[in-house]
Amino acid sequence: MKLKRRLAVLFDMDGVIVDSMPFHFRAWHQAFASIGVEVSQEEIYLREGEKGEVTAREILEERKIPPREEERQELVRRKREIFRQIVTHELFPGVRELLEELRSRGASLGLVTGTSRKEAERLLPEGFLDQFDVVVTGDDVRQGKPHPEPYLKAVRELGLDPSQCVVIENSPNGIRSAKGAGLRCIALTTSLPREHLGEADRVVDSLTEVREVLSLEISQR
């Protein structure tokens, strides 16, 4: 079935494509613990999508700890090093099938992540990024999520109108980024409960539900 009006589906990576959020938490937890700071899983998950430098600075500021720039950079470096050592390359079940179906039905695909391109390539299976028509990483923007710049850049590179795009996210920052760019957003409860995802247009519990929603939209075009 051909699309009457082209659709693009833009995916976040962590917590949507790859089951990496538990490892991000463990890495941040260990990095902060090394300087005597305790962080909770919810605290880290609520900050998903923003640049690591922002996470480090704001968490320390909340605890009235004014770090020097080099100390903050070292904290982020330590987190990234721990993450690389512990993470496993585990795609969520059904991801490959969902991407294949969307492409077979004429949809464009995008990946929009706050992670650097090098880290994304390391985290994802070899050649996986080639499935996307556009990839926007943390290296490609000046302002990360929740700022709309990452999604605005993806839409611009696809040459589409925002009304032709739908975003799949799992965090408040990602949802705000998508909505700020004028895009519809489906939120997954892979990391956080529904009460934190209310700014999305729709909240679902699995990629199976995402597939059903997108399939219906495609059939109506």
Task: Describe the protein's architecture and organization.
The protein is of the alpha/beta class and 221 residues long. It folds into two domains: 8-19 and 90-219, 3-Layer(aba) Sandwich (Rossmann fold); 21-86, Putative phosphatase, domain 2 (DNA polymerase, domain 1), CATH 1.10.150. The chain contains nine helices and six strands; from the N terminus they run E-H-H-H-H-H-E-H-E-H-E-H-E-E-H. It is globular, with a radius of gyration of 17 Å.
Q: Summarize this, please?
A:
44% of the residues lie in helices and 11% in strands.
Report the order of strands and helices.
EHHHHHEHEHEHEEH
CATH first level of the largest domain: Alpha Beta
Fraction of helical residues? 40-55%
Mean pLDDT: 94
Q: How many distinct domains?
A: 2
How far from one another are the termini?
10 Å
Lateral arrangement of strands in the main beta sheet? 3-2-1-4-5-6
Apparent shape? globular
Largest sheet: 6 strands, parallel
Structural class: alpha/beta
Count of runs of 4 or more consecutive helical residues: 9
Low-confidence stretches: none
Our Rg estimate from Cα atoms comes to 17 Å
How much of the sequence is in beta strands?
Answer: 5-15%
